[in-house]
Structures are given as C-alpha cells and as structure tokens.
Amino acid sequence: MSYNIMLIKGIINTLVRLIPLSLYMGSIMSSFIFDNKRAVVILFGFLFVEIMSFGYNSFNKSISSANCALVRSESQNLALPAPIPLSIGFFVSFIITDMMDTNNFKPIKFYLLIMLLFITIWSRINVGCHNIIESIIAGLIGVTLGMAYYKLVKDKYQEDDSKSSDNVSTEESKIYQLLNM
Length: 181
Known about the structure:
- It is a single chain.
- The chain is mainly α.
- Helix content is 78%, strand content 2%.
- The chain has 5 helices and 2 strands, in the order H-H-E-E-H-H-H.
- It has a two-stranded antiparallel sheet.
- The chain has helices spanning 3-33, 37-60, 84-101, 107-126, 132-179, and strands at residues 71-72, 77-78.
- It starts with a helix and ends with a helix.
C-alpha cells in the first residue's frame, strides 16, 4: 500500500478517535462559556451513554483492547467506556431526530452526519478495534439511544432553542469583541 494512502488512513483514524472527546469538550465549553442550555442537554446524554457503557463493561468484566485506546503506553492504555461508534451514533441520531422533529431538515447536514457515522464504523474496523458486526451493532445501539434520549428531552431541548435565539446576537457580539481586541 502506498505511503499516501496509509497516511490518509492514519489521519482519519486519529480524527475518529478524537471526535468523542471533541464533542464532549465542545458541549462543556458551550454550556459554560455561552450558557447554552442545549449543550447541557446533549452533554447529559453523552454522560448517560458513557455511564451506561461503564456499567456494562464492569458487569461483563470487559477489557479494552490496545487498538481501541485513546492514549497508550507500553504498560497501559486509556480508553473511554463507550465504543466510539456508539457515541457517534448517539450524536448523529440525536441531531437528525431534532431536524426531523422540528421540520428543519437540511440535506447536507444529514448526509454529512451519516457519512461521519459510516467513516467511524469503517475506522474502528480498520484499526482492529472491533469487527464489522461489533461496529455496526454499536452504531445501531447509539442511534437507538440517541432517538430515545431526544424523545425524552425534546421539550427541554426545544424550549431552550426558543430562548437561545434571543441570545444569538449577544453570543455573536461576545465572540466578535473577543476576536477584535
């Protein structure tokens, strides 16, 4: 295999490995800095998925593979409790369910989210973290959890949407002021 293809695959696999942390940190920062209540709702969903996966892994005494690690050394590896396809499936279905529920369907956003999920599943298979069945099942469980969680919290999520539309200009002006200091 050529060096360029291996390099591209390595970059994609690294980005996929970091996406859950990026989503978690983005939700945290958005909720704390901009007081975005919608980010808090999504963050609680991510925490629910991680806690549920931690409980499942503890109950089954699952051991994380070195291929699945976020950070690894010669003696140890560190991985999140939830498989990455589960977390991405949760996020993708939460956002898509919101688009469908609010009649605000955006085809480009939809296809990019679906592509993100497929790339995540492919990446986890490619690095040897999961086989094809495990990756697909994790993604489907994440999709199911994301839809169910959205249905549970949609009133709170949409309520904050109407409030946050008033704050958009304030948030944008804060960012503008910070960038033009």
